[in-house]
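Re: Re: ligand-bound prediction request (bumping)

Still looking for help on this. To restate: I need the protein modeled with FE2/S2 (inorganic) cluster bound, output as structure tokens. Inputs repeated here so nobody has to scroll up.
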Amino acid sequence: MKAPAFAYAKPTSLAEVFDCLDGSEGVRLLAGGQSLIPSLNMRLSAPTVLVDLNHIAALRGVTEASGVIRIGAMTRHHELATSPLIASRVPLIAKAVPHIAHQAIRNRGTIGGSLALADPSTELPACCLALDAAIVAASRRGERRIAARDFFLGIYETALAPDEVLVAVEFPASPVNAVSGFDELARRHGDYAIVGLAAQGVRKGETWSSLKLAFFGAGDRPLLAEAAAQAVIAGKGIAEAQAALQDALSPSDDGECSAKTKMHLARVLLGRVIATMESGT
Amino acid sequence: MTPAAEIHTITLTVNGERITRSVAARMHLVDFLREQLDLTGSHLGCEHGVCGACTVQVDGVAVRGCLMLAVQADSATIVTVEGLTDSGVLADVQEAFLQRNALQCGFCTPGMLTTIAELLTVNPDPSRDAIRDAISGNYCRCTGYHAIVDAVQNAVAARRTKEAAE
Ligand code: FES
Ligand code: FES
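Reply:
Sorry for the wait, this slipped through. Here it is.
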């Protein structure tokens, strides 16, 4: 349970990070370390150099400009949970964060680390999908924005190029009449979700005008259930929306649950989350 | 920038004492505390973030000591269960642990206490549910948790009574 030997570098600017990433194999970026360090301790990964992003001030903090909330990649989960700006402008994130592991892990873990890892059973990638977030990647070549739906490619797989650093994520501020809903099912508090749902929509009176349903733990990446969302918007009733999940999700069997059980649980969650959103709580 | 190397010199404050040591990059914080500083109060159960026995305070917040490298603690302020004990901030909670049999083998206790210390700073009057939620990332294989929750509740109630009397 001890990590193999590696070298450690502590850059203080992005330019220095780019230098570290220059063409050398085996370089890994270290964000909050709450997934990477366990994998080192278990020797599931063996980088030659770890580049610590914890001392780059430009990667921290939450700001708002022209209707866009920008969260620096090294903003910790605990900061997300306690930011008044996030609570008022991107409440879905504030609802999701308490479900992530435990306080001691939220004190260290970062949003950028969680998105770059792209574990398909985690909360924040699904929130990004439901919120139409843009992931900001930087390299010597400049900065580019990648839509969340194009960013998550598979288990631990993203659209980031080897020389790129995930520097921030940008969310459109919630519009008027926006409603968000979040829930997940896990065996114990803080465990990885068996299946979870992040939902964001616009609802005026009894009428939905838009809705995004992003499931996690239900495939090799967070998945949008579009037909189910359409069924809810069209007011076809929850049973029809639940039935529409069959084609949208592709959970697999694991030690804990069969794929069939997960599909059942996804339907249950959809019912609960939509009921909560429609009741306005 | 600190350039890439396998050995680094770090300077940090541990339980109020300024310390400079040379560490291997691969060494996590609790191995450093236990092996190099002889602070054996922080325990290692799983070394992958699951059990919470390694919980220590870094710059005022509780973290998993097995999920942070010692080299990352350069310039940090660390408080371990030894430091919490010496300062007396948790003396009443520790006494309540004894009274309620909230420890048996004691392996989880330092992590529990460090976690509870953070809880009580953020929420000085936690409900039973809030206590359970706070310690949900700390495994205890002996007590069944109820005694731990009881102990925290008793200590908190005693603090309230004391405050009211003052
Ligand atoms: S030893 Fe760190 S969480 Fe178990
Ligand atoms: S007292 Fe033995 S593990 Fe908690």
